Structure formats: structure tokens, C-alpha cells
Write the C-alpha cells for this entry.
Amino acid sequence: MFSESLIRLREKNLLREIKSRNSPQGSRTVIDRREYINFSSNDYLGLANHPHVIESSRKAIELFGFGSGASRLLCGGSVLHNELEKKTAQFKGTESALIFNSGYSANTGIIPAIADEGDVLFSDELNHASIVDGCRLSRARKIIYRHKDMGHLTELIKKTRAKRKIIITDSVFSMDGDIAPLKEIYDICSSLNAQRSTPNVFLYIDDAHGTGVLGRGRGALAHFGIKPESWIIQMGTFSKALGSFGAFAAGSKDAIEWLLNTARSFIFSTALPSCAAAASIAALEVIEREPEVINKLWSNRERAVQGITELGYDIMGSETPIIPVRAETVEEALQISQHLMENSVFAPAIRPPTVKEPRIRITVTAAHTAKDIERLIKALDSITVK
Ligand SMILES: *Cc1c(COP(=O)(O)O)cnc(C)c1O
């Protein structure tokens, strides 16, 4: 039944496969017994292998066992779930926060919970697949605006009638590494809300790649100096820069209580293991105690960008440690990735349908050394196809 479709995928060079590792993922990764310098991970601060994160998680397993047994509403959560929520709210400067099992389940649970029939969702065309799926699950109408195009967004909002309007955007776009114009989006929302007694324009940001990276780790709102508002919900993940697993929503007390009561991916899914919550708490502690690690991430990012652009590669508007390198075709993207692997550098080709324009996606982390980045640049320099 699927074999012909699979053959077609293979013919178009779009068949994917999973590589298996025999090592932790860090600045190095071992695939088929060969070691590569790893430029594919979103563990931007190298915290997945941090001793404090590992030790906290180990202790939590001893205290709470592994599985959580059921949804928190059914079986109760552990005190570590509560502690992580308190800590997350504090970190984000919001009244409250709620943990989700993953970023994917956060977006697919929260969006239908906050947008119902009669509401309209305005979604950036490059938003993450989990946002797209969250929008599909919602009964609200969906309107896609051109990537970061504020003129287009304003025009669409003005001509649309709705009970509530909800603007949804990635803070950092996961495949392009550029940053949403949150200040402008904030201004659009706040000027419309100022004309009313109760706000009806909401902002939902997905800070998966901003958390731990932007705004001294506090995320994209902090980066832009935007204070939390009752009409802003921030979603973020513990799975990327925090080197852990799971996700959160942070916002007003009422918004979070609403999500706890209505987000189906929260209600109908077994809670995260407590050791994952412990790892996230530990990662937040590391960021507070060792903020230098974020500076290291950014200086590595600058070093890589300088080298890559000097070689004449197009980094597609990257502003963050996610650095795409444009390829003309899927075949070229695969060739570049293959060539890098031959030079012990692992950076994956990203193809449709994940993106429209094929590319290599390079992620730089704080765990890389100057020499690692030099190896990346050298390997890119020795490619003939560019
Ligand atoms: C990775 C990602 C998610 C999903 O988070 P997981 O914790 O990996 O499920 C959601 N949104 C964006 C923008 C992402 O990059």
C-alpha cells in the first residue's frame, strides 16, 4: 500500500531515515562508530550533558521513580512539577505557568484551547509545524500572513471581524534562524486593545528557540524589553537550549488556569516524568548561575557566521545560532551535507516538505570550541558546488 509512495519519495531524494547514535549528543556525535563534530543539535547551551542537570535528574528518579502514572489531574503531579512551574513563571516574569509534555503537544493543546468558533488565528507562514497542526485542531478561522510582513498582518487584522483575534508567531524561526518583529506585533496588539475595555487581540508566541538563547536566556520578550501582559501567552520548550524535555505555557493566572482546564494535550496525557522536571529546574539554575554560557553561545555564533559568509554562502537572514546555508536544489543540499560528513562535520540537509527552499541547517552551541568552528568553515570551504 505504501511501497509506491515510498519509491516516489526515494526518486525525488525526499526519503528520510534516522541515523542512530552511539554516544550522547553534544559538540560530538558518534554515528556508525565514526565521530563527527555535531552541528545539528538544538541543545544550544550544552546543558543536556551538564553535571548539575544529570545529577538532579538522577536524584529525582531515586525519589519519585520514573513514570508519572497518569495525567496530573488524575494522579497528581510531583512537587517537582509544581516547582518547575513556579520557577518558569519567575524566570519569565509571568503570574503563572503550566508544563506540557513537549512543545508539539503544547501547541496542539493550547491553540485549540484559546481559539474557538468565532475567533480568528493569524499565523506567520513560516510558523512551526506544531503551530500549523494546533491551528488545524482549533475551530477558529485561520489566516496566514506573509513571513514577518507587518503591513500584510495589519491589513488582514483590520479587515477581519471576529470575537477574538489571536496572532501566533515563532519568536525564532526554527529553520531560518531569523527573529519575529515582536515589538511591532506587540504595538499592533496593544494599540487595538487600548481602544477597548477588555482586550480582544491576543499574542501567542512560540519561544522554543528563544528560551535560553535570547534576552539573557529569558526569551524573546525580554530580548525586546516587552513586559508580559494579560493578553500575551508565551509557550517555550525545555527540550532545546535547556537540554531537558517538555514545554511550558507562561501567562496570567487566569490564562494558565484556563489551559489546565481545557488543553486536551494536558488533560489527556500522562505527566512528564519528574526527573525531566528536575532536569529543567537544574538547567534554569545553571542559566542563572552561569550566564556566561549564553555569551559563549553568541560569540561562537558570531565566529561561525563570519566564516560562513566570508566564503560567500547565503545564510538566509539568520540572526541566531540557527544558521541555514542555502542550497540551489535538494541534490545540492544532500551533496553538501555528505561532503561535510566526509570531513567529520555533521550538519543535516533540510528538504521539502520541512522547508520550501532546500538548505543545510547548521546550529552552533556553547559547547563548540573555536577549533570546532574552524573545522566547519574549512569543510565548507573545500566544497566545489557552491
Ligand atoms: C522544536 C519546536 C517545537 C516542538 O518542541 P518539542 O519539545 O521538540 O516537541 C515547537 N515549536 C518550535 C518553533 C520548535 O522549533
Notes: The chain is about 40% helix and 15% strand.
